[in-house]
Amino acid sequence: MSKELTTRAEDYSKWYNDLVVKADLADHSAVRGCMVIKPHGYAIWENIQQTLDKMFKDTGHVNAYFPLFIPKSLFEAEEKNAEGFAKECAVVTHYRLKTNPNDKTKLIVDPEAKLEEELIVRPTSEAIIWNTYKGWIQSYRDLPLLINQWANVVRWEMRTRLFLRTAEFLWQEGHTAHATKEEAIIETKQMLDVYADFVENWMAVPVVKGVKTANERFAGADDTYCIEALMQDGKALQAGTSHFLGQNFAKAFDVKFVTKENKQEFVWATSWGVSTRLMGALIMSHSDDNGLVIPPKLAPNQVVIIPIYKGDEGLAKVNEVALQIKSKLNAKGISVKYDNRDTQRPGWKFAEYELKGVPVRIAIGERDLANGTVEVARRDTLSKETVSIDGIDSLIEKLLVDIQTNLLERAKQRTQNLTTKVNSYEEFKKVLDEKTGFVLAHWDGSSETEEKIKEETKATIRCIPLNNEQEVGVCIYSGKPSTQRVLFARAY
Amino acid sequence: MSKELTTRAEDYSKWYNDLVVKADLADHSAVRGCMVIKPHGYAIWENIQQTLDKMFKDTGHVNAYFPLFIPKSLFEAEEKNAEGFAKECAVVTHYRLKTNPNDKTKLIVDPEAKLEEELIVRPTSEAIIWNTYKGWIQSYRDLPLLINQWANVVRWEMRTRLFLRTAEFLWQEGHTAHATKEEAIIETKQMLDVYADFVENWMAVPVVKGVKTANERFAGADDTYCIEALMQDGKALQAGTSHFLGQNFAKAFDVKFVTKENKQEFVWATSWGVSTRLMGALIMSHSDDNGLVIPPKLAPNQVVIIPIYKGDEGLAKVNEVALQIKSKLNAKGISVKYDNRDTQRPGWKFAEYELKGVPVRIAIGERDLANGTVEVARRDTLSKETVSIDGIDSLIEKLLVDIQTNLLERAKQRTQNLTTKVNSYEEFKKVLDEKTGFVLAHWDGSSETEEKIKEETKATIRCIPLNNEQEVGVCIYSGKPSTQRVLFARAY
Fold first, then answer.
1. Which of A92, A160, A168 to mutate to test the interface with B (most CBs of B within 10 A)?
2. Which chain A residues touch B152 with a CB distance below 8 Å?
3. B99/A88 touch (CB, cutoff 8 Å), yes or no
């Protein structure tokens, strides 16, 4: 069968690439590093978007849209931010093409249409947004400003991988403005909690909440909070970040407000984002050698029904029962695809929907009809059972909840098994190489040590976990005193 | 009051610009020709998106996402399309910035990071999509391909106006692939009908469906169908287009399929789109000198409740009743904002929600409470009445339907009054200058005549209406024979 995947054991990285393309999630494009998100992948992303969008609105945020382009002079205003992104910026320099005088069928960039000031394709929108906020914020009455944007951004990455790291990606970026530091910090943490809630309870991916070290902080932030997840191969993936930006952007763009006490003060800021990278986390957390496994809460089709029959008369009989079951399931709010195409055989369809990750498959044969039963298969465990058609809607409803729970529990168990406390640098390196996963180790708090460990082992500090246990110890690298363990891993 | 608008009679164009900014719909940005869509404007756009997205899915389409950038060599493959858009293309030429050696706080484009091939920021996506479809389509079994994309596009316009014509805008673009010419034409017309249905029945804007002349056709299309609407100032606005692309893109990108009869044939194509320009049509169709008027079906808040009270005790009493009314309305699926902020007076709030176009306002005073009544005001007619709180939910539900109907009827009446049949060029020019609106006139069918009329009067042929009455006549310009009248107007 042409759709067969490389197995995870053979080559995890190739398994991922194969799966993304063969399960029709995304594809490479003619543009270096840019992907095409295919309909099946986009349908999952739409479910992610809709769920998050509701969570953002429930926490008081509204959506808006800011320009794709940032004039260079605005882009460079917040120096750390500019420096952090300068090396991966796509730059628009011209606004017109013209016919090539040497070949009338070709176009060339019109040298007379050079922009006076270059435009940066947004890698993130703090600069253009804070330049806009300057006009919107005068008084404490205008605060807080709680705005989110769904958009595409471009970061010119040299090594790209579908969903995980692409030159263009889709994301949401929240940008809020507050009258006080305290309020901005509360917002930063609130959005981290929203992300953790979503990733655990919808994507079924357990996360560690934490704060980044200075080295790993977002360029322009005073503090970066993050959620870190562990994939099946023991590598970590940063699933979302929420930044406390202090007054850095307010100062760079001169955004002040008049307080209740009639004083002028700089505004406090946060920004937070998740991207199509979440698709990578979802895929790598749950899928297996047969293909994709989608958590029921995010599956475009939660159930697929496949008829097994001979001839038109047989199909007519199965159709009737299948459509009854479909309508019962729809009435429970369950999304169902009934695939009675006659161009493909049942075996092909079984493999196809396994590959595409549909959580539950119902197969209905002519013999089943006589018995009043159907075969129900769950994608997560690949187990099958024959069940009565009576009460199938309640059974499937419960099964979808079970699958969602099982996926989270399985991933939690894996993460727990792959989280190791170590007390020496030797042990640290051994665990990274042999067991992989999260490694909890003492660190002296210096950027220098962090960088040396990274150089020597490719492991980074993923975060300092929130509510971290305080414990006296010594840095595994420098032997200097330490008060807590931090979370190391090799990461995507 | 600082928010007062220029009146339409004074200066229609200034009224529009004032309204868009003051009603918090959109704002100019630091990037030439690009707008910021503000939260209130974006909330309306989200309702437009959600409604259309459902209509697309109900007609069998799925969403996907294709790259923002198009390599120049792909862009120029379909020559007419390339020629049509070449003069308004933003071009990415570099992928990195670096520190300015003469001023460490500034950045410059890194000359060493020049792209081998320039990238065009998509003005429309036929080229990148058909280049992708080449890999997706092999057999008749892969057809039809019914895909839509929600995206931003960039067309470097020299004269821009918020929503109506901006360098960057948001839109959806459908791109479908079919095995036969007939099927592609049916799709083209189906999507025109979907657009007409949406614009008339959700936006309450009546449209004329028609087909463009060769001059006004989309670059690369064999036929362009359109819906044309008439604004309050008698100018036309193209609200949506649906293109039959023939085999032009299939030939440019060599997209062939194997038919059931095992022959190789080129694929047939359509594309269709509507954009944030629809916001301009919505605003200019219904709004008045007090501000925006939003059709209830697209209003982010369909009802606003404003309390009128003295002191905290008064507010507490009104709050109780207001929240009861709100929850009754919510139960009917009506969206309600209760504005009991104590920072603004009722008069200010009345003006504010009038400006922002909320369809229905309910004012509740302490005296009303004793009588069991409230004051209900409708935004479309500005009329008010005192009604009993009993049964208010059914009354408001009906009122919202009435307002939606009234807006459409009012706009239909206006369009009818401003549609004039003329039989001479003198009359044609007089109507354009004095009465304005749609002008139905005989035309000889030549591009030459069409261009001369455009040059001399600034009027263009908006479309040849579908199911047009056939009538013997002579061209108003050339005197040559004609078989039907076509629809002329000055247009946005």
1. A92
2. 68, 151-152
3. no
Helix, coil or strand: residue B473: strand
Low-confidence ranges of chain B (pLDDT < 50): 1-2
- Contact assessment for residue B66 and residue A29, using Cβ atoms and an 8 Å cutoff: yes
* Chain A residue numbers touching B34 (CB-CB < 8 A): 67-69
Q: How far apart are CA B192 and CA B188, in angstroms?
A: 6
Q: How many CB pairs under 8 A join A and B?
A: 192
Q: E strand or H helix at B243, and its extent?
A: strand B236-246
Summary mean pLDDT of chain B: 97
Q: B44 pairs with which residues across the strands?
A: none
**Which residue in B46, B64, B90 is closest to A39 by CB distance?**
B64
**Distance, CA of B88 to CA of B123 (rounded, Å):** 8
**For chain B, which domains are there?**
12-68+131-286 (3.30.930.10), 303-399 (3.40.50.800), 419-489 (3.30.110.30)
| Residues on chain A touching B105 (C-beta within 8 angstroms) | 76, 79
Gyration radius of chain B's alpha carbons: 26
Give B152-161 pLDDT, tens digit per residue. Answer: 999 998 899 9
Q: Pinpoint the alpha helices (H) of B23-168.
A: 39-58, 72-75, 79-85, 126-136
Give the C-alpha separation, A447 to A445, whole Å.
7
Q: How far apart are CA A263 and CA B281, in angstroms?
A: 43
The residue in chain A having the minimum alpha-carbon distance to the alpha carbon of residue B276 is: A65
Answer whether A66 sits within 8 Å of B27, measured CB to CB.
no
Q: What is the pLDDT of residue B1?
A: 42
What confidence tens digit (pLDDT) does each residue in A416-468 have? 999 999 999 999 999 999 999 999 999 999 999 999 999 999 999 999 999 99
Give the integer Cα–Cα distance in Å for A301 and B62: 13
Contact between B42 and A65 using a beta-carbon 8 Å cutoff: yes
Give the whole-angstrom CA distance, residue A68 versus residue A78: 18
Q: Which chain A residue's Cα is nearest to B90?
A: A95
**CA closest to A66 among chain B residues:** B36
Q: How far off is chain B from A101, nearest CA to CA, in Å?
A: 14
- Tokens describing residue B294: 């939003």
pLDDT, one tens digit per residue, over A399-410 is 999 999 999 999
Q: How high is the ipTM of this complex?
A: 0.97
Residue B360 pairs in a beta bridge with: B303, B378
Percentage of the residues of chain A whose pLDDT score is greater than 90? 97
